[in-house]
Design a protein that fits this description.
The chain is an alpha/beta fold. It has 8 helices and 8 strands, in the order βαβαβαβαβαβαβαβα.
């Protein structure tokens, strides 16, 4: 029997978090400033959400738009502050100018979060060589998930890659959970579930009226029902 699918929802604040939880989300990705595709929230924002809901929270570690690490010392400091405030799970991912993983930056930040569990985010979809990136990151403490659409263009374009990577689960560099997100739609779910994918990430899909309004508990509940086979 396949295990219950994980549903992760992007939350920008307490209202989002509560609605996502009420709709059946298993986990939240906490971000700020979606105009920049999601940056690190403040410690106060994290603390407010942590106090409001008891489901797992993964906190974005990203200070600027794009996939470069930027000021790594500052980023490591922010990661340490969030860790000190009680954050236990994170999301990060940095590429160098050559399109390969910025391993030094990743290792520095991962060292700061002391082995917490973390997701390497959609930077993988912009890498010049996905397989090489996975193998370079293999063995880093805490890495348990890749958030990916299979393509920088989104799930429609990335489906063949997602299905191929799902089939490689268990190989070196492919032990981590595949968390599919980025242009994900309900009609994608059946094929991905059949291929063994059991984790799904939504942002805009949880906000049918757009990013200017909070998460809809009803929209999240619809996803929960589909993932549960309803």
């Amino acid at each position: 029997m396949s295990r219950r699918a994980v549903l992760e929802v992007i939350a920008l604040g307490v209202e989002d978090a509560v609605a996502a939880r009420d709709g059946g989300a298993d986990r939240l990705e906490l971000v700020a400033d979606m105009a920049s595709d999601g940056l690190t929230p403040t410690v106060a924002a994290f603390a407010g959400i942590r106090a409001a809901v008891d489901i797992p929270l993964r906190v974005m570690l990203r200070l600027t738009d794009g996939f470069g690490a930027g000021d790594v010392d500052r980023l490591a400091g922010v990661a340490g502050e969030l860790r000190g405030a009680g954050a236990e799970e994170f999301v990060l991912g940095f590429l160098g100018a050559d399109g390969g993983v910025d391993l030094a930056a990743v290792e520095r930040v991962v060292g700061e979060i002391e082995g917490c569990r973390w997701t390497f985010h959609r930077a993988i979809d912009h890498a010049v060589d996905r397989d090489a990136l996975r193998k370079q990151l293999d063995g880093l403490p805490g890495l348990d998930t890749y958030l990916t659409a299979g393509s920088a263009a989104g799930v429609d374009a990335g489906l063949p890659t997602l299905l191929a990577e799902a089939a490689r689960g268990g190989e070196p560099g492919y032990e981590q959970r595949l968390l599919v997100g980025g242009g994900l739609r309900l009609e994608h779910v059946a094929g991905l579930r059949a291929a063994g994918v059991d984790a799904f990430h939504i942002g805009g899909a949880a906000r049918p009226e757009g990013w200017g309004v909070p998460v809809s508990a009803g929209a999240v509940a619809e996803w929960r029902g589909v993932l549960d086979g309803g």
